[in-house]
Design goal:
This protein has 111 residues and is an alpha+beta fold. The protein contains one helix and seven strands, in the order E-E-E-E-E-E-E-H. It has a three-stranded antiparallel sheet with strand order 1-2-3, with no helix packed on it. Strands 4-7 form a two-stranded antiparallel sheet. Strand 2 and strand 3 form a beta hairpin. The termini are far apart. Bound molecules: zinc ion. Zinc ion binds next to loops.
């Protein structure tokens, strides 16, 4: 039930490693390739990744199922998508990761 072993692709906006998963409605959703410890993420932001055959599926039912790690939608951590003005209100773990992606993107641009 782990997403380990999957090869991430870079976000086309910020270059962060993301995985594309399918929601129960069949929509493609980008999630951060790296999970978070469950307790660092508010319940509304927790997603569970499940590999089913060749497909990667994402479920929003983490509240009902005990898991140690959760995934977040990349929209929540993408420096290109989260306006600076909104970052102060982010959860610390999310804000940290967003800052990390932004620094990595800046370093890449400077290289
Ligand atoms: Zn991004």
């Amino acid at each position: 039930m782990s997403a380990a072993g999957l090869t991430p692709s870079p976000c086309r906006f910020c270059g962060a490693p993301i995985l594309w998963a399918q929601t129960k409605n069949g929509r493609a959703m980008p999630v951060d390739a790296a999970p978070f410890p469950r307790d660092q993420i508010a319940p509304s932001g927790r997603w569970r990744l499940v590999r089913e055959g060749g497909a990667l599926r994402v479920f929003h039912d983490v509240a009902a199922i005990e898991v140690a790690e959760v995934w977040v939608a990349h929209f929540a951590t993408c420096p290109a998508k989260v306006p600076s003005a909104k970052r102060g209100g982010l959860e610390p773990a999310i804000r940290e990761r967003l800052a990390y992606y932004e620094a990595a993107r800046a370093a890449e641009r400077g290289a």
